[in-house]
Amino acid sequence: MSVGIENPVHLLFIAVVALIVLGPKRLPALARALGQAVREFRASLEQGSESPGELESSAHASGGDQAMGEPTHPPGQSG
Question: Is the separation of the CB atoms in 19 and 27 below 8 Å?
């Protein structure tokens, strides 16, 4: 027995419900926005696929390896 939305009948049912809920005028705009979001997500995944070594070298180059200053204490307490 198939569980999930792998079955084409399930996808057809979801499409019909979306058409009823959103209407024929709003559905194309929503599909366009969803497609654009998926494209941007994939582009960001490809852009962010740097190796850990490249990430470390870019952090060192930008000063990310500098030591932090002394912690501050709340008023009335001595450190």
Answer: yes
pTM: 0.45
Q: Which residues contact 70 (CB under 8 A, 6 or more apart)?
A: 79
Between the alpha carbon of residue 30 and those of residues 3, 7, 27, 37, the distances in Å are: 27, 23, 5, 10
Q: What is the pLDDT of residues 20-41, one digit of tens each?
A: 998 989 989 988 999 999 999 9
Domain boundaries, the chain: 1-47
What single letter denotes the amino acid at residue 28?
A: P
Using DSSP, state whether 49 is helix, strand or coil: coil
